[in-house]
Design the sequence.
């Protein structure tokens, strides 16, 4: 069947939590020790499954936050009315087991040899798979130019903020803070619209590959905007996340 | 023994509920989950009609006409096939008996049809004699579009997929024709007390 | 509730088809549009998972979990 890859069986296995990193007051990165991890590609995700003592189960999907070659990590935003995210953010601790399966995904991935330039557009926790792509670019020695447009509610909500600040000149990071800005903020202060996108995106003629990730309405606005600018649809890859309480 | 996640309890589940009201295999929730097979339709009330269709004949009500019909407050326990039950839900609706009173029929079955294309099949005996309503209010408010507003079918004695959201009418039928979920493997009848979730149960 | 896309059912598709499917191309039998499985519009928390054509929005695939057994109906899609 076209598109099939040799996988090894996609089975549930129990990983151990190595470390947790509080990225923002609502967001945590969980570093995992996964026995027999086959490796992954930047942009892939894994499925997490929680089981209560009475057998009740809940399953969710999380993008892998780390680059190929790095320990497996996921970054989770706590949703107020969530069922799984409050557990992962508040209860889970180093030494605990976490049942998962993966890596999964062949569409929303960027192997460094695919080249660029890259346009990465993130809404909220949509930054996670794009951060894996950026880390992969750095680790692989790729020199493709990257522009990352990242929409967050406020500066406090920017995930991986220090890391993104230290990326260096060949990766341009443009933030927009949609709800609240710090005093003296000179950057964008609104939701991504066609005009903002037009000022940040690579011109359509540059042959850029775009990856757009975030809430569904964000993704559809951005992807639609890029296609309007002349990006070929097959160069605009999208991944929609469930509502993140924006 | 399969893996258990230390300290995970899942959604608030009310284990204090009267067990005789909880159908087999269900847990009681205080939430009201929104489940859907497609986008939420938004039909303007000016365009909305409810119809009973019998072959070539059709009896329809506009929204104004529908809202002039006698309605009542209904309190019911509801049971979703995805295993949550919610007790003492309150609705405002028009009894299906009131609507069917205007149509002379001996058809044994109906197929409820809805905005967005959803359908579900029911025996006419299960939507008459005070067992079903077309509900336009939930918990003292107009029924939210996410929960099926402006109006949904309410048939609490069957699994809640039979309480079709965004209902626009009933087709009277001689044969029991499977609706949307029934076509994809769910039970034709759907009695939660006999745990009739899937075809063959 | 907002729809997701075929990325959200990546694991489910592997379970059901035995292979990574998000880049597999298919044609909607209702409108003829072509898409990759990742581009399907997906409604998840329902009595079953419903995938719709991104162009005409008609149902192309439904997966129902019957007590652990996944039953897939993909008569709305011609895959190649």
Sequence:
């Amino acid at each position: 069947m076209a598109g099939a890859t040799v996988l090894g069986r996609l089975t549930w296995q129990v990983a151990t939590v190595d470390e947790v990193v509080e990225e923002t007051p609502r967001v945590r990165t969980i570093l995992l020790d996964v026995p027999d991890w086959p490796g992954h590609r930047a942009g892939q995700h894994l499925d997490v499954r929680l089981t209560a003592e009475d057998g009740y189960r809940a399953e969710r999907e999380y993008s892998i936050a780390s680059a190929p070659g790095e320990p497996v990590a996921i970054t989770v935003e706590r949703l107020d009315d969530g069922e799984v995210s409050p557990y992962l953010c508040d209860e889970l601790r180093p030494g605990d087991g976490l049942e998962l399966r993966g890596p999964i995904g062949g569409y929303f991935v960027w192997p460094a040899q695919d080249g660029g330039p890259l346009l990465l557009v993130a809404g909220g926790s949509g930054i996670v798979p794009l951060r894996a792509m950026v880390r992969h670019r750095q680790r692989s020695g790729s020199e493709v130019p990257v522009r990352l447009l990242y929409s967050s509610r406020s500066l406090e909500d920017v995930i991986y903020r220090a890391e993104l600040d230290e990326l260096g000149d060949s990766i341009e990071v443009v933030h927009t803070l949609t709800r609240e800005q710090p005093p003296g903020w000179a950057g964008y202060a609104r939701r991504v619209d066609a005009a903002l996108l037009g000022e940040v995106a690579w011109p359509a003629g540059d042959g850029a590959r775009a990856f757009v990730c975030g809430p569904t309405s964000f993704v559809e606005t951005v992807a639609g905007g890029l296609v309007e600018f002349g990006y070929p649809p097959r160069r605009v890859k999208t991944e929609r996340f469930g509502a993140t309480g924006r | 023994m399969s893996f258990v996640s230390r300290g995970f309890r899942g959604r608030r589940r009310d284990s204090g509920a009267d067990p005789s009201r909880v159908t087999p295999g269900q847990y009681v929730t205080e939430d009201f989950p929104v489940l859907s097979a497609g986008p939420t339709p938004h039909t303007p009330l000016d365009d909305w009609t409810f119809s009973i269709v019998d072959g070539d004949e059709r009896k329809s009500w506009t929204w104004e006409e529908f809202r002039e019909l006698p309605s009542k407050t209904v309190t019911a326990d509801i049971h979703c096939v995805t295993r949550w039950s919610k007790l003492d839900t309150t609705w405002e609706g028009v009894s299906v008996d009131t609507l069917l009173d205007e149509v002379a029929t001996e058809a044994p079955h109906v197929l409820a049809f809805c905005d967005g294309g959803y359908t579900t099949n029911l025996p006419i005996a299960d939507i008459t004699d005070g067992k079903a309503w077309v509900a336009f209010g939930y918990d003292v408010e107009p029924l939210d579009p996410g929960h099926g507003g402006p109006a949904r079918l309410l048939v609490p004695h069957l699994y809640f997929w039979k309480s079709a959201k965004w209902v626009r009418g009933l087709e009277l039928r001689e044969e029991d024709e499977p609706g949307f979920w029934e076509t994809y493997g769910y039970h034709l009848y759907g009695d939660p007390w006999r745990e009739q979730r899937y075809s063959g149960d | 509730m907002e729809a997701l896309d075929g990325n959200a059912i990546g694991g489910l598709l592997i379970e059901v088809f035995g292979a990574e499917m998000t880049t597999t191309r298919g044609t909607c039998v209702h409108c003829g549009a072509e898409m990759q499985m990742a581009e399907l519009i997906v409604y998840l928390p329902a009595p079953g998972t419903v995938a719709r054509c991104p162009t005409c929005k008609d149902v192309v695939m439904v997966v129902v979990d019957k007590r652990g057994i996944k039953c897939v109906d993909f008569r709305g899609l011609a895959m190649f």
Remarks:
- The interface with chain A takes residues 2-11, 13, 27 of chain B (CB under 8 Å).
- The longest strand of chain B covers residues 84-95.
- Chain B has three helices and eleven strands.
